[in-house]
Amino acid sequence: MAIGYLFKVSEHQESYQMTATHGNRTTSADVVDVSAPGAIPYVELSATNFGEILSLTESITNQGWVVTTPAGPMVLGYKQIKSILRNPEWISLLSSFTALDQMENGISDLNVMLEQAQRIVPEIPSTVRMRPNVLSVEGEDHKRLRRLVNSSFTSGNTNKHRAFMKNHADNLVSKILENGGGELVSEFCRPFPVPVICRILGVDDNDWKLFDEWADIIFSALDADIESVIGRLGEISKAQRDLDAYVQNLIIKRSNAPEDDLLTELVQSHYDEDRLSHDELSAMVEAILLAGTDTTRNQLGATIAVLADHPDQYQALRNDPSLIPAAVEESLRYISAVRTTGRLATTDQVIDGILFPAGSTVLLGLHAGGLSEAEEHGFEFNIFRESGCPHLAFGSGAHHCLGASLARAELQEALTSFVEKVSSYELVSPVEWKPLSMGIWGPAKLEIKILAEGKSNKSQNQTDFKTTVKVESELESNESSEVVNQWIREADETRRTLRLSIPGLIRKPKFPPLTRLLTTVIRFGKAFIVWKIRDRKAEGPEKQALLYERLRHVAELQGPTYVKLAQLISAAEGVFPEALVAECKKCRDQVSPEPWAEVSKVLNDELGNRRSDIVSVNQIPIAAASIAQVHEAVLRNGSEVVIKIQRPGIRKKVIDDLKVMAWVAPKLVGKIPVAALANPPALVELFAETICEELDFKLEVANLFEIKRVLYSNLKQEWEIPDPELELVTERVIVMTKISGVSLGDSIAMGIDSESSSVVFRQMVEGLLEGAVIHGIFHGDFHAGNVFLNETGKIGLVDFGITGRLDGTRRQAFLRYVVGLMTGDVESQVVGIKDLGAFPEDADIGLLINEFQLERNNFDPLELSEEEFIDEFRGLIKGLLAEGARIPKELMLFVKNFAYLSSVMQELDPDMDLLNEFLEVASAFFGRNGVRVATEIGFSLSADDVSDITFRRVAGIRENVPSLTWKELGERRNSLMDRIDRRSIKQIIE
């Protein structure tokens, strides 16, 4: 599977000079974990043509052999790529589907992926299946298939068909000559390989056009535009089915009546007593057709394009046709149609000081490896190389391309025909290239004009059309890029040191700070007494709501730690009383600002001499939260910025609050039954980690850089992220650009149309979701004041102090949980949250599913009587407590974020169809990340694939309910919680 990427170079590699822990893995002083933040140079997509690709690739490979891309690590070094390809502990991405699947449940992952597509596009027939072949198996299975077919793919067998290849190419070129030129992709490159493959296989000449059409449609599944692919899945599946039926019939014919062709050889091939099965034959024939078609046509077009930019070398070929094999090899090295492939590490792998943890998916830059390996001038096209052309266009190792000799023969004969018949040519217009995608890469349009004999193909205007020659490309400043990566690396070290200190900070003290404890007790005690006296006449839910309101006011008065506690509680619906959750949702982190005289001291102390870079500051803040306040300002260069300044004395107050909480939290577990589910100690630990990190603004800036990379990796979405002035950033001050637009909170008052609200919702959910489960980092404070909408449709984000991180196995556990939610796979959900720590390690998954009736479908709790509902709820709470259930701290932050987003969207568009939005988000997620998900956790899913069944279970709606809006969901939730409010939690549990 080829995956194409264009790069923008960032930073150089640097190893940690210490022993460091990343996730659950420890790396030594001389080994760099490829997944460690900032450890590996980062590159982004930016080039627009092949000339820029050459320039950028050269710059990148000069700095190191491995980089990080939005899709994960990419290896660029020739020797390292070859080492990985030849190491059986690295398996191909396609084969990893099957391998992981067999470990999970013994079904075909490829079929599950297709079933997912059938769920999205019902027109896809359920009879369509994908069969494992030499590309999708590993180990002994792969060796067996190669043994059975190797003898059929020798150069001797290929050479028998060279005369046909040449004659076929002559016919195509002759038509172009008659017209004095033409569009070579459609008139030469595209129609050339299919008849050759068909003739070799033994397909009737009259059926070439059918095979050509099928190959085109099926290969469109690897388009760069995932959404357009989803829309064509019906057509693609029909082509697959038609091809499959044709091949099946052809196999039967050759089995009964052998002929002198490749298919007969495959039918008759054997090793000892072993033979290819009927399905294996079908898979092999289809793989030959598809793999042997698109690669050849694209490589042929690329070769002619590059020779147009090198007329002297083209004339050398005409003068000496014996150079054509060398020209083909140089073309494969210089402008290979197969740019990248992928591999999965089945065990921890260390290559030249870089650790690739087990489960790592890496891209292998086959093209970049060939460019950088040449001894001299590797980034120039030269058919006269004396040292040969080492390249990886056909891969290496066990999965070295079976059809390499066939591809070489096709390219040599086609090029020979073109060179013999076309004396000289020039480009009529610039070459148009296909977008880089998961498919093969090459020209999309290649128009030429054939020149008269003896006339040079170096016309006056042709220099403008050169797109296969290295050109200088504007790269991001290496200096500034390295500063960013260095910032991320240093922040990672600071963060790890800080987190190691957290257990000591929150270790249960014999007695907390007395002053802060007394203040806390007095304030909360006063609120409770006032409630007892003033609200004594109120009854039931109303009385409880009044208590929670008073407690919320005290939390806001107490400051940031208690505000964030309330914000976390607001996300724990179903664990805490609904009235408390509702009240905590009102707890906004907006407080009265500090006097300018006080905060200006912080600004002056932190910036020192650099304070003069700021020529004016608006002393009235545009935002004031419990930790910091934000002022508009203007820099000496005229730039309009904002300054985030930390409140004086806030650090001591936070530390004192944490010690008070650490003292109180364990006491709640034994005193209040439901508190065990809320996991107070974990809440305190989460507080300590997030708020201590939030107090260091340098960490916030590093978070901003990392999240920006994650969000910008989805080219379908547009985000606006502030740019910090790094020379004006300290632990207590950030100077950065101002985000445009209005806050999401203000948008509620202004109102936006339902289509726009749907776009915002999907982008926010996808950004949160993919950040967490794919990249392991997400913005942790999605409240309406931190999200902005501007007129261009971009979504702006600010305040990166609270950032969720999921390292190593915990990210994969969360990924499994989310995939389970999207597909209705209850087992994956339970395994995922168990691995996150929601249940003890020895918990029985099957028993948990049965005990809590997690697979119960088509059930509406509103149809229960009040007593039946209370019994259900009592059983659930008691069961969770008995099983030692806890809310994982990572889940708390993620759910808090989603709760924020949900509450805002409920006000923006109460009639939004949540079932439809759920399916759209899930389908888009799998469309972009299906390969990554499959290689990391396998598709151990039910046949339902993307399904709203989990959403229906959670919402309690039956299968015949066609839609569910925010408004309806809120009404259902209120009705359910009203029943619980009539009985205290304590009564229900008792």
Structural description of this entry:
The protein has a five-stranded mixed beta sheet with strand order 4-5-13-10-6. Strands 18, 19, 20, 21 and 23 form a five-stranded antiparallel beta sheet that branches. Helix 10 crosses helix 14, helix 20 (514-534) packs antiparallel against helix 21 and helix 21 (540-558) runs antiparallel to helix 22 (560-569). It is built from 39 helices and 28 strands. The chain is of the alpha+beta class. Residues 1-24, 96-130, 459-463 and 940-944 have low confidence and may be disordered. It is 53% helix and 10% strand. The longest helix has 31 residues, at 278-308. Strand 4 and strand 5 (72-75) form a beta hairpin. The radius of gyration is 32 Å and the shape is globular. It has a domain at 803-989.
Strand content: 5-15%
Share of residues in helices: 40-55%
Q: Please tally the helical runs, counting DSSP H or I stretches of 4 or more residues.
A: 39
Let me know the largest β-sheet.
Answer: 5 strands, mixed
Which structural class matches the secondary elements? alpha+beta
Mean residue pLDDT: 79
Unreliable sequence segments = 1-24, 96-130, 459-463, 940-944
Please count the beta strands (DSSP E, at least 2 residues each). Answer: 28
Shape, principal axes of CA atoms: globular
Return Rg in Å: 32 Å
- Spatial order of the strands forming the largest sheet: 4-5-13-10-6
| End-to-end CA span | 59 Å
